Amino acid sequence: MVATPADEHAYLLKRSADHRSLADRAALSTSRMLHERFAAVYAQRAAELRVEED
Known about the structure:
The chain is mostly helical. The protein is 76% helix and 0% strand. The protein contains two helices and no strands.
């Protein structure tokens, strides 16, 4: 099964949201910082992905 660009876009946004949630709950500042960075990277990748609407 091949993921469509729309599927990949949705996946990247979900991963970004998941990492933001983990950052909010992190007890250690280093963990929070890493989750915030991962969230930003996933969001940036989603923004760069071209998704064509039908």
